[in-house]
Amino acid sequence: MDLIYSSTRNAKEKVTASQAILKGLAEDGGLFVPDTIPSLDVTIDELADMNYQEVAYAVMKQFLTDFTEEELKNCIKSAYDSKFDTEEIAPLVDADGAYYLELFHGPTIAFKDMALSILPHLLITAARKNQVKNDIVILTATSGDTGKAALAGFADVKGTKIIVFYPKNGVSPIQEKQMVTQKGDNTFVVGINGNFDQAQTGVKKMFQDKDLAAEMDKAGYQFSSANSINIGRLVPQIAYYVYAYAKLYKNGAIKKDEKINVTVPTGNFGNILAAFYAKNMGLPIAKLICASNENKVLYDFFSTGTYDKNREFILTSSPSMDILISSNLERLIYRIAGNDAAKNKEFMTMLTGEGKYAITPEMREQLKDFYGNYTNEAETAEVIKNLYEKTGYVIDTHTAVAAGVYGKYKKETGDTTKTVIASTASPFKFTRSVMDAIDKEKYDAMSDFELVDELSRIANVKVPNAIEEIRSAKVLHDTVCEVNEMPSVVKKFLNM
Ligand SMILES: *Cc1c(COP(=O)(O)O)cnc(C)c1O
User: Fold this and answer.
1) How close is the Cα of 110 to the center of ligand 1, in Å?
2) Of all atoms in ligand 1, which is nearest to the CA of residue 399?
3) Which domain holds residue 392?
4) What integer pLDDT is reported at residue 229 of this predicted model?
């Protein structure tokens, strides 16, 4: 019996896993969610002896039930291979009383690789299963890391094209260089004069544009999404929490069934939602600690029960978390509303209209396992500096936001539960901010690539290939457009 997915906004829209992956977003703008969250059907002892690929299979097969064993194993094998610079895929580093789960060992040195290295394979397999003839056009809005990871995942994948929109002045220089140097005839990168939320809203509008869809179909294309709203991204992310738990158990850091906490630097709410799903699969997780930067809309939500995006958008040193509309939160809202699509839709309509909604006390009651807080810019820099000086371990700005919130949580609660911190980017991806945090005076005058070498020296870590490659790479994409020009840019790229 296949697990069925339905839209968070329409109980009648029901699809299989492969159809949900193909569609990305539901017809009505809702997100696909499984009707129930399946349990793990292997024991922790069994998981402890598995490698990353085997754990990924044990987790993903429970969700993607209309994929055959062979199909799913092939997808996993093609994704988690030598593109990653360690066989462990997601190593754990013990530093200063927390376990950093390094999710940045893939081709673009950010955690988006964990899902985006497998999504193209899931998508192509799903297309084949559903007799899709059209080429798949991936449309993505990025605050920096998704874009490059999606480009790298889809570049030269037959039967696909990928178009990435990013805020022209809202990503780091290294992030931008990584994207605009992307090779592959099927790739297209566009800067917009606007922020990430505008890019995301523009993309969502195109997904819902029925006329555009008909025109595309005529030309032999159909859209799909690589954004973190695609269930094909969420599901692979559950695997690394299970893997981390199994490794802690195997290494003797925790006893059998001992609960752990998980701290996640959060933007679109995808990564922490994956941890929530892992918990609901039966993984012994106690608290889900949601860390925000100064765009602390989620912190305010957890502390007041009101989600309110009406506020200033702040550019921070953790740009991948500069987000005011956390799309994946909708999946949690739907769930705490009792899997009630009509009720969820009301909240989302309020969010679109007034920019805010308040959940009921009964719904708030179900958020007890979440803790939200935020780390401001000065604190983030301090966390990086202190950890480096104390242990020699260098973390990036996003991970530092999480470490800062974890520090606040410990101080507030005295909770000594062992804690995994999701380490979402290599410090080499945000070298300027990281080195400024460590010693601004000393490093201020150095160029970005001088800083890369200096970081390598002080952290005693080899410069990742992803950075080496772009030192000399040519800029291949220079399109910039206004927000309202996004659809015409897409048509032009597709020769429509
Ligand atoms: C995308 C991203 C995040 C936020 O993850 P969400 O799943 O959107 O909450 C955090 N850190 C880095 C480095 C990222 O790229």
Assistant:
1) 8
2) 11
3) 92-107+232-462
4) 87
How many domains is the chain partitioned into structurally? 1
175-179, 291-295, 386-390: least confident range: 175-179
Asked whether residue 377 is domain-assigned, the answer is yes
**CA 40–ligand 1 middle distance (angstroms):** 25
In a domain, 179, yes or no: no
| Ligand 1 touching residue 145 (CB < 6 A) | yes
What spacing in Å lies between the alpha carbon of 245 and ligand 1's midpoint? 21
User: How high is the pLDDT of residue 484?
Assistant: 96
CATH of the domain at 394: 3.40.50.1100
How far apart are the C-alpha atoms of 486 and 276, rounded to whole Å? 34
List the catalytic residue out of 112, 204, 279, 429: 112
Helix, strand, coil percentages for the chain (3-state, nearest 5): 50, 15, 35
Would the CB of 228 count as within 6 Å of ligand 1? yes
Residue 174 domain-assigned (yes or no): no
Is residue 404 in a domain?
yes
Give the DSSP H/E element, type plus range, for residue 200.
helix 196-208
The verdict on whether 158 is a catalytic residue reads no
Instruction: State whether the beta carbon of 230 lies less than 6 angstroms from ligand 1.
Output: no
Distance CA 170, CA 181 (A): 17
Nearest to 261 by CA among 370, 334, 173, 127: 370
Quick: pLDDT tens for 110-157.
999 999 999 999 998 999 999 999 999 999 998 777 889 899 999 988
* Most ligand 1 atoms within 8 A of CB, residue of 164, 296, 323, 398 to mutate: 398
Per residue in 203-244, pLDDT tens?
989 988 999 999 999 999 999 878 778 999 999 999 999 999
Ligand 1 near 113 CB (within 6 A): no
Q: pTM of the prediction? A: 0.92
Does the C-beta of 140 come closer than 6 Å to ligand 1? no
The answer to whether 29 and 327 are in contact (CB under 8 A) is: no
Average pLDDT over residues 56-68: 98
Residues 6+ apart with CB under 8 A from 373: 289, 290, 291, 292, 299, 405, 408, 409
As a whole number of angstroms, the distance between CA 273 and CA 83 comes to 26
Residue 376: per-residue pLDDT: 98
Atom of ligand 1 nearest to the CA of 143: 1
193 C-alpha to ligand 1 centroid (Å):
22
